[in-house]
Every structure is written in structure tokens, then in C-alpha cells.
Amino acid sequence: MRTGTPRHTRRTLGVAAVATLLGGALGSAAAPGAANATVQPVATPIPLTSVPSDGSTGIRTEVPVSVTAQSGEKLAAVTLAAPDGNAVPGSLNPEGTVWTADGHLRTHTKYTLTAIGVASDGSQVTRTSSFTTFSPSTDSQLKFQTTEPQNGDLVGVGMPILVQFTHPVTDRAAVEKALVVRTDPPQPGHWSWLSDARLDWRPENYWQPGTKVRVSLNLDGVPAGAGQYGGSDTSFAFNVGRKQLSLVDLSKHEMTVYDNDKVLRSMPVTGGKPGNDTWGGTMAVIDKAASVHMQSRTVGFGDAYDIPNVQWAIHLTYSGTYIHAAPWSVGSQGYANVSHGCVGLSTDRAAWLFQNTLPGDLVQVVNSPKTVAPGNGYGDWQENWNQWLSGSAVKA
Q1: Contact criterion met (CB below 8 Å) for 115 and 126
Q2: Are 43 and 127 contacting, i.e. CB atoms less than 8 angstroms apart?
Q3: DSSP string for 81-137
Q4: Fewer CB atoms inside 10 Å of the end CB: C or N, the chain?
Q5: Nearest 5°: CA angle at 229, between 228 and 234?
Q6: Banded pLDDT at 299 (limits 50, 70, 90)
Q7: In the predicted model, is pLDDT for residue 16 greater than 70?
Q8: Catalytic one among 190, 315, 340, 342?
Q9: 215-236 confidence digits (pLDDT tens)
Q10: 3-state secondary structure 219-254
Q11: Which residue out of 104, 253, 324, 340 is catalytically annotated?
Q12: Is 324 a catalytic residue?
């Protein structure tokens, strides 16, 4: 799925050669005796490799930017900056003669490239150049459709970081490299593609309670392949709360809620009847709502039911699995599985669980004949660490 970096013919121009083309600006700075004098920086164009000349516009964001010095000259410092002051990171080679930008450029941005060159006699010259990147058409912009959690959220230890794009991504590696997660305290984790348009990040193990997480999605300008470019950046932060897991045993028709491995409460439940079995496996809560209108047609069950006010609904899968109040099945709770796939509780028990549940809390369903897919909601924990890493385009 990766696409290679376009190759460009490199044109190298030494500091002395540039000075000659500019009427000997460096020649005057490097005249006899100048090495012992105070040298005033001279603002003139700098030598660029694989970047159009000073004042150019419509530059593609994947064009490599570099500065080269020749004939014994060195580069003392190079800065490539946008108008807001944000600098594109770069690095010098060990000889100090070539600087190369390491980060991608943003779209529709004017960049100023400033380099300080040191001649063999110790004299310095400052040279500047500027160029403006292109503005991709609306149709070619890759944008975020959904990101989760929301800024400021408090979540459970099973919450993944979800990024859903507006279009399928061709160059997954380029996009993945632009998305950064920082945790306090540090925890190992990685991105994994759950579809061609969805990318999740999760730690190797469940989050440590109390972790602070900062996510920077630096998509603007990223060449995403197939003629698409990232259209915007976004960032958000969230906090991880306590560890809570609800274990649903379909054979015992029972749910046991644990707080950091300590039993809080056990409750009778009903699960999906044979043929409509509740999804098995480890999931994380997507969201919750005090009332949900549940219609069987939306989940492929025809006219089986239409209930306008299902209370205390905790959302588990995109395919329509909830834990919710089911007063109509109280007689079966603890004895039989009679639902269309949801986990039903009495109204008072469902209200208690609802009040004590965070998005990202863990729910594990055992003794089911079917297993939830990782991308059906937050089923990321269905995969072991090696399986999770295999879904990445950038290997750990």
C-alpha cells in the first residue's frame, strides 16, 4: 500500500558559486582580512536542492527541501519556517554540508528558508528564500470524518484512539507517520489499520489508570496516495480513569462487574437467543444514552421490534449490540437467553450500571458461539500484540 517518494534531479550550488551569480556578495564578505573583521550577514537567495527558485508557488508538499554547501564551506544553521513560526524539522549530515528537511510541508503555506553558511576562511553569509505550497482541490483532500475520544473526555482503560477518514487511504505509511500519540506516564502502543479508512491506536496492554494522553494528528499536506493530500490538522487530549470490567457469562446468564479486579456487583442478565447470539469477546464501551429508539429494521431483523424508549443503553458494537434495561424480559434474566443479541437487565440494575460506566470501560462476553471483529465498535482488544502490530504500515 505504500508509495515511494518521488525522485527529483538534484541541482547543487555552492555558497561561492551563488555569490558569483549574485554579483560577488560572498566575495566581498570573504575578501583579504575579512576573517578578522566583524561580518554582517547578507540577505540573499540560498542554494536549494529539489526546490524551485525563490518566489515559486504551487509547490507540492512532498517535494524534498535541502540546502547544500560546497568547496569546503559549512552550514552553521538552517531554518524552514511557516508564517506562524512553526519550523519544519531537519537534520545536517555529519560533514555539516547538507541540511535536509525531515517533515512534510503543509498546504497553501508560504515557507521561508534561512541558511547561515560559513566559508573556509570563517566568514559567514545569511541567505534566504521563500516559496508557497499548493492548495489541493476539495475532491483531493483527505480529511477526518471522526476522531475519538473527544477533547477533555474521561475514559476507561480499554478506550482506543480512533481515526476515521473521509476516503480510503492508499499511502498508509505516510499517513500513519504523521499521527502522534504522547502519554504520561509513557506506555508502549501503536497504530493499526482496521479498514482502508480507519486507523486505531492502543497501548500494548490496557491503559494505566490516571494516564494523560495527547494526540496530534498532523495530516495537513501529507501525500496520502492516489492524488490525495491531507487537508487539515487536529489535536485533542483525554484522561484515563479507573479500570472497570463487566464480565458477561452467557451460559450462567450473569454479569459480574469488577473495579480493578475487585467484585463490585453481580447481576442476572439475558443475552441473545440461539441464532441471534450476543457477540463474544472483549469490547470497550463506545458511548451511552439514557434513552434509545431501537428498531429491528436498522439491524436486519425485519419487523421484529420497534421500541421508542429503551432506557439506560450502553453501546458495544456498530452492528447494534447494547447493554440496556429490558423490563419485558425480567422473568428470563438469570435463566435464559431470549434477546435479539443485546444484554438485558432489570431497569434498576441497568440504571446502576449506566451511572457507573465510562466510554472505554471493558466488557467481556464469554460462552458465545461467535466472536466480535476488532472493527465492529471498539473490539481492538480481540487481537494480541503481534496481531495488532501486523495491521500497521509502519513497523514498531
Answers
A1: yes
A2: yes
A3: E-TTSPBPPEEE-TTSSEEEE-SPPPSS-EEEEEEEEE-TTS-EEEEEEEEEE----
A4: C
A5: 135
A6: confident
A7: no
A8: 342
A9: 999 999 999 999 999 999 999 9
A10: CCCCEEECCEEECCCEEEEEEECCCEEEEEECCCCE
A11: 324
A12: yes
Record the cell numbers describing residue 37, joined without a space: 573583521
Give Cα 229 to chain centroid, integer Å.
16
pTM metric for this prediction = 0.82
User: Residue 252 and residue 270: Cα distance in Å, rounded?
Assistant: 9
Confidence band for 74, pLDDT divided at 50, 70 and 90: confident
Q: How far is CA 386 from CA 17, 283, 381, in A?
A: 54, 18, 12
Q: pLDDT at residue 385 above 80?
A: yes
Choose among 321, 340, 330, 335: nearest CA to 280: 321
With CA atoms as reference, report the closest residue to 363 among 267, 247, 272, 253.
Answer: 247
Residue 108 known to be catalytic: no
